[in-house]
Design brief:
The chain is mostly helical and 125 residues long. It is built from 4 helices and 2 strands.
Length: 125
């Protein structure tokens, strides 16, 4: 009874009240978020996520998603693959989705490089 009540409240709250939800890769697949009709997703530090990390997050909103924005540095802090040597697909996971998109030889994806990185400016540290 209490779980049904909680699910009903979550559905109303997420579908009618909430405009923005911040989640991690793992928490984006939480069952409560199936009621949040995301149209736009921003993936921060996308270069650190494997294809599976990003796909898990996006799968939650497969029916409503219209735009995906990946941010980060495709040449910095690559994703870690803990199953290397144990998983036959670990080589595929080593190159993050973000890097694959930026370095796509067919140039199928639009991207923009930032000219100046304010996060590493001396006056911010």
């Amino acid at each position: 009874m209490q779980k049904d009540h909680h699910q009903a409240l979550s559905k109303i709250f997420l579908s009618e009240v909430v405009d923005i939800v911040f989640v991690t890769y793992a928490s984006s697949a939480h069952e409560a978020l199936e009621h949040f009709p995301a149209e736009v997703v921003f993936v921060e530090d996308a270069a650190q996520g494997t294809i599976l990390d990003v796909a898990t997050g996006l799968a939650t909103w497969m029916e409503t998603l219209e735009h995906v924005f990946l941010s980060g540095d495709h040449q910095q802090l690559q994703s870690g693959v803990s199953s290397e040597g144990e998983n036959e697909c670990s080589k595929m996971l080593k190159v993050p989705l973000f890097q694959r998109m930026v370095e796509d030889p067919l140039r199928r994806y639009d991207f923009t490089f930032v000219d100046h990185c304010y996060g590493s400016a001396p006056y911010l540290t």
